[in-house]
Design a protein that fits this description.
Number of strands: 12
Structural class: alpha/beta
Distance between the termini: 46 Å
Strand order of the largest sheet: 1-2-9-6-5-3-4
Strand content: 15-25%
Bound molecules: nicotinamide-adenine-dinucleotide
CATH topology of the largest domain: Rossmann fold
Radius of gyration: 20 Å
Order of helices and strands: EEHEHEHEHEHEEEHHHHHHHEEEH
Number of helices: 13
Helix content: 40-55%
CATH class of the largest domain: Alpha Beta
Shape: globular
Number of domains: 2
Oligomer: single chain
């Protein structure tokens, strides 16, 4: 069996312990995977489960997932939401809580989030709060969900005032990454997820960075597994983002500012990629990172068809960055690029942040 066909399991030991299974044909086996995971942990479920997907993922995969869950003895209820970020809202959250109650879910009932990061965050928040918390399984179908949002226990919805403003931590019982699903993921979302993959390489993994001289598809098994392992290490060191987990925000201070300036028309992974390039250039200008490393980072980002800068000016970006959740009084914790695979978390003053943005553009 080629290395790319091998099934990989990454164990996460946080406030809850669980496996992330990375492999092929897994959506059709999700019932058995859930049953085995629950048996291995000595947990018992009440048998009812809410399978939440969206109207792109549902028609492709919900029938297979529900059939597999039913074959494993679950009473699976198929619920589909409109696709897109707008679904991560209070109204849909309320609708899903109602659907959980109508289905007769109890505290030992299961929510299965089948989809990308939007469904993972929304269904995850339902699981975190329904009856003060029930069980959650993440079945990630987008690259971004596989490498980032399905692992680590952050769940959230957006408010009209801003993104991810209401949320909770809930570690899932199991994460399933079915690589076959990436074949139906639209190219724009594949490249968006690649932005986060490149971020992991710059953040701490020169070997992963070197792999990315080739496209992600063709080596998606080892790439997804490596990114999950990196996220696992960070989450295990700092589940609640008191320190080390902030490293995952590389490129995000400027990236979020770009998203905000664009009225969220520039996708997250694209904005983060531009944020990483801007940080790399700024750090090279300040002598914190070798010029050649910054140039390699910028070339890598461009090579994956991702943006390396933005049309927004330093003033606009700075004003937008001040809304960042990572702001602490008159400072901001930013992730500096020290080289390919090397970063440093540093609290900078707001005037310094303004300078960094200007130097990186
Ligand atoms: N919880 C976390 O730690 C965390 C981390 C990063 C991002 N996020 C959140 O993730 C969200 C973005 O996630 P996303 O990029 O996966 O967006 P998404 O969930 O909207 O999925 C992207 C698009 O691809 C479609 N899709 C997904 N899988 C598919 C497949 N296999 N085949 C065909 N179509 C498919 C979806 O229907 C959607 O249209 C944001 O809301 C962001 O805030 C959360």
């Amino acid at each position: 069996m080629s290395d790319e066909r091998r099934e990989r399991r990454i164990r996460v030991r946080a406030s809850g312990s669980y496996d992330v299974v990375v492999g092929r044909g897994l959506i059709g086996r999700v019932g058995e995977l859930v049953r085995d995971a629950e048996a291995a942990e000595g947990r018992s479920l009440d048998g009812t489960c809410l399978v939440v997907s969206d109207d792109n993922v549902g028609p492709l995969y919900a029938d297979a997932a529900c059939a597999s869950l039913r074959a494993a003895g679950f009473d699976a209820h198929d619920v589909r939401m409109p696709a897109g970020e707008a679904t991560k809202c209070l109204a849909r959250y309320g609708e899903l809580l109602g659907a959980a109650a109508d289905a007769g879910l109890t505290r030992s009932g299961l929510v299965v989030a089948l989809g990308g990061g939007v469904i993972g965050d929304l269904a995850g928040f339902v699981a975190a709060t329904y009856m003060r918390g029930c069980r959650l399984v993440q079945v990630a179908t987008s690259l971004l969900a596989m490498v980032d949002s399905s692992v680590g226990g952050k769940t959230a919805i957006d408010l009209p005032q801003g993104k991810n403003l209401a949320g909770a931590f809930l570690q899932p019982d199991l994460v399933v990454c079915d690589l076959d699903a990436l074949r139906t993921l639209p190219a724009s979302f594949l490249s968006d997820g690649t932005g986060e993959v490149v971020k992991y390489g710059i953040m701490c993994d020169p070997e992963l960075f070197a792999w990315l001289d080739a496209p992600v598809m063709g080596q998606e098994g080892r790439v997804v597994a490596r990114c999950v392992a990196i996220k696992r290490d960070v989450v295990e060191a700092d589940e609640r983002e008191a320190g080390e987990r902030k490293r995952l925000n590389l490129g995000h201070t400027v990236g979020h500012a770009i998203e905000r300036c664009s009225g969220y028309t520039i996708p997250h992974g694209h904005a983060v990629a531009a944020g990483c390039a801007i940080m790399a250039r700024a750090c090279a200008a300040r002598g914190l990172c070798a010029g050649e490393d910054a140039a390699r980072i910028v070339r890598m980002i461009a090579g994956h068809g991702l943006p390396t800068t933005t049309t927004y000016g330093a003033d606009e970006l700075y004003a937008a960055a001040l809304h960042d959740k990572k702001r602490v009084g008159d400072g901001m914790d930013v992730v500096l690029v020290r080289g390919v695979g090397a970063t440093e978390i540093r609290r900078v003053s707001l005037p310094e942040l303004r300078e960094i943005i200007e130097e990186g553009l």
